[in-house]
Design brief:
- The chain is 32% helix and 0% strand.
- With 62 residues, the protein is mainly alpha-helical.
- It has a domain of 25 residues.
């Protein structure tokens, strides 16, 4: 059991600091890529909702 470390409670990180760390690492997309095993770095994906459009006024139903 060489190198065994007993469990020790760690002080939680403030949520704002945790969010800043995630943002610095590439946001949720970086974690999703890590989990999927995809090695490509594709930061060209638009933010959520960036590709959503509203129908033109002529397309709206009365």
């Amino acid at each position: 059991m060489e190198g065994y470390k007993a469990f020790a409670d760690e002080k939680p990180v403030p949520w704002a600091a945790a969010n800043a760390t995630v943002d610095q690492r590439g946001g949720w997309r970086a974690y999703a890529k890590e989990a999927s095993g995809d090695g490509q770095d594709d930061r060209s994906v638009p933010a959520h909702g960036a590709t959503h459009t509203m129908p033109a006024a002529s397309e709206k139903k009365p």
